[in-house]
Specification:
By secondary structure, the protein is α/β, with parallel strands linked by helices. The protein contains 19 helices and 22 strands.
Length: 513
């Protein structure tokens, strides 16, 4: 078969797919076609049905209606092992990795044909060859718990590529865990996959990345296919965003009003703080930082430079090596998480799917666990009253949090993020430690989240915000600090610097500091 014919071969055809969860229709008669050597982007706001559609194609969910074909033949893709045997691979937003095992061992577990005869030396060489070809190098002998999120994603990609049958790879919000320079490398990898004849389904909400690589774009809204276009037709950022949100009026960056800082007692004071990593080796040293009530300080830095460890230490999850931490004037250096919570500290982790979700509990139960007011009904909880309180919360409506009775483990990453943000904002913290609030969120929810954070700031909340999005930091931060070379540089006034200078400091540090 010639290259042209190969490129035009239809790998996948989905016809009028339907998926229901009880009375809720998540996917409503959606059609989809993927060619070999094509990058097909699936756009939509959080809750539009993107992840549900992809989980049907990977065999996680059984369709309630419609038909599936692979290379012209009717197929059943459930369960995932059958989907993999048909050539479908998937890189989930919430990674399916065993932290206590090495990269090599995790990949070995994913190989359906491995059995007991797996040749680890041969597999290590295969990993090395694929890593070199697609620019996704990772140490096969490293333990997964040692890897940052970007490196863990590489392991998931390798798991799909080592399967010899793979023809089609699904990526679920792949760049939500990547830094800007990692995104460029990821897009280059997609181009290489396309050139090698793979079909790629790319679930995302980041329009600029779609414009940079996609051949075809399908837009979902409320479970329905509402728009489709391709590279040989007109395809603009404004057009795609308006189709996603169902309005020609595009979300704008929120206005950051001036806050008068009158409280003399700092919400957070960090002096000469040093922190060790998980191997008891110094990761950050000599950190000094002060945040006053009503001030939002952004933290920039390349992924893995100590962002997670810094927030864990400030919240009391990690011991201080040396230095001091004061919250609202009180020394909490050796204090517990409970001590900090009593003083109004709230923490939003960078990985809410794994660190903020209790399997088997609903959204409403998660809200109650975090301190949402509840009424009693005899010896039980008056859940009807709690649900009414939940539905009446402005933050729930603003962030469009999913229905109260939805089990959280069934939600997409973006919908989990909405719930976690709603929990944090509802508590009106005195000090909010928050990592990557916009990760996994569509543009409308991102703007709503930023507006809510600025609203907390105007109410007197002190906010320490970690983000890989420099545009976001410049738009909503009063001051910006940078984690680089084991140190904390700054603070810098966003009005007196620019993203280019900030990027240089992220890579090289600040010689004038």
């Amino acid at each position: 078969m010639g290259e042209t014919a190969l490129q035009r071969e239809t790998l996948l055809r989905a016809s009028k797919l339907i998926k229901r969860f009880g009375d809720f229709t998540a996917i409503d008669e959606v059609n989809l076609v993927l060619q070999r050597g094509e990058i097909h982007a699936i756009l939509g706001e959080n809750g539009a049905g993107k992840s549900t559609l992809m989980k049907m194609l990977y065999g996680v969910y059984v369709p309630d209606g419609g038909a599936l074909e692979m290379q012209g033949k009717p197929v059943t893709l459930h369960p995932p092992s059958r989907a993999r045997s048909q050539g479908v691979g998937m890189v989930f937003q919430d990674f399916r990795l065993v932290p206590a095992l090495t990269v090599l061992e995790n990949i070995a577990l994913s190989i359906d044909r491995a059995g007991f005869l797996l040749n680890k030396t041969k597999l290590a060489q295969q990993i090395a060859d694929i890593s070199e070809r697609y620019g996704i190098a990772v140490n096969p002998h490293a333990y997964v718990w040692e890897l940052d999120l970007g490196q863990q994603q590489r392991v998931e990609i390798l798991k799909a590529l080592v399967q010899g049958e793979t023809k089609l790879i699904i990526f679920d919000e792949p760049t939500s865990v990547l830094t800007p320079h990692e995104v460029d490398a990821f897009l280059a990898m997609l181009q290489r996959l396309r050139a090698d004849g793979y079909g790629v389904l790319l679930i995302t909400h980041k329009i600029r990345e779609v414009l940079a690589c996609a051949d075809t774009v399908t837009v979902l809204r409320n479970g329905k296919l509402v728009y489709r276009t391709s590279r040989d037709q007109e395809m603009t950022e404004e057009m795609l965003v308006s189709q996603m949100i169902g309005s020609a009026e595009l979300p704008r960056a929120p206005e950051r009003n001036q806050v008068v800082l009158v409280d003399e007692v700092a919400a957070l004071e960090v002096e000469q703080l040093s922190i060790n990593n998980d191997h008891d080796v110094t990761l950050l040293t000599g950190l000094n930082l002060t945040i006053r009530p009503g001030e939002l300080v952004g933290v920039a830095g390349i992924s893995g430079n100590g962002q997670k460890e810094l927030l864990e230490t400030l919240y009391g999850l990690r011991k201080v090596k040396s230095g001091s931490i004061r919250v609202a004037g009180a020394d909490v250096t050796a204090g517990s998480v409970a001590t900090r919570m009593e003083r109004g500290v709230v923490y939003v982790t960078e990985d809410p799917i794994h660190e903020s979700v209790v399997p088997g509990l609903s959204i409403l139960e998660h809200m109650v666990l975090s301190g949402m007011e509840m009424s009693k009904k005899g010896l039980d909880v008056d859940w009807s009253d709690v649900r009414q309180r939940f539905d009446s919360l402005d933050v729930v409506r603003t962030l469009r949090v999913a229905q109260a009775d939805r089990l959280v483990e069934t939600l997409s990453g973006g919908n989990v993020q909405r719930m976690v943000l709603a929990r944090a904002i509802t508590r009106v913290p005195k000090l909010l430690l928050i990592a990557y609030p916009s990760r996994g969120l569509d543009i409308a929810t991102t703007r709503a989240t930023q507006k809510l954070l600025l609203g907390l700031r105007e109410m007197g909340t002190a906010i320490l915000l970690i983000s890989e999005d420099l545009t976001e930091l410049f738009e909503i931060s009063d001051r910006i600090v940078v984690l680089s070379n084991h140190s904390l540089y700054g603070p810098y006034d966003p009005a007196d610097t620019d993203p280019y200078q900030m990027g240089h400091i992220m890579l090289e540090g600040d010689e004038q500091a």
